[in-house]
Write a structure and sequence with these properties.
By secondary structure, this protein is mainly alpha-helical. The chain is built from 6 helices and 5 strands; from the N terminus they run βαβαββαβααα. The protein is globular, with a radius of gyration of 17 Å.
Length: about 160
């Protein structure tokens, strides 16, 4: 087994969110929420929506609900009809809207998808270059899921602290 790894955030298998009290009792701080889409066609059409906005931040509850975000287009199967330039434009818009509104742009991917569709790695590099520019300009805070949970908890603690 793996030793000395402290897990604090959780991604539910198959995006089936459940067992939150048990996760909290086990020491988890947050979980990635999921967006439900009515069909594969709807998910595919979303890839063409270059005006998509970042997501609202979440409130702290039993566990911190990390905004579900969007998976990076895998450039395989039906999604390979989406031009790489559209995927990059869409993500730049999501990131820019996060900078403008203070919302969350949660990008995630399955690393094995780069093996089946290596062209997706160049798309990821273009998106991450934009992330780095906006971060270096001071417009974007880049956080892991664990750091996001700490950030939300710190904000919540400051809001609850008595003011003298």
């Amino acid at each position: 087994g793996v030793k000395d790894i402290a897990l604090s955030t959780f991604v539910h298998p198959g995006n089936a969110v459940d067992f939150l009290p048990e996760l909290s009792a086990a020491g988890f701080e947050g979980f990635r929420h999921t967006r439900l889409w009515p069909s594969r066609v709807a998910r595919l059409m979303r890839e063409f929506h270059i005006g998509e906005m970042a997501e609202k931040s979440t409130a702290m509850a039993l566990l911190i609900e990390i905004p579900g975000g969007q998976i990076l287009n895998t450039r395989a199967n039906m999604r390979k009809i989406v031009p790489a330039s559209i995927t990059v434009r869409r993500w730049k818009h999501i990131l820019d809207s996060a900078c403008a509104t203070g919302r969350v742009a949660h990008l995630w991917c399955h690393p094995e998808n780069f093996l089946s569709a290596p062209s997706g790695f160049a798309v990821l590099q273009d998106i991450l270059a934009h992330v780095a520019r906006r971060r270096d300009q001071g417009d974007l805070l880049v956080l892991t899921q664990e750091a996001y949970c700490r950030y939300v908890r710190d904000i919540s603690d400051r809001q609850r602290a008595p003011r003298h």
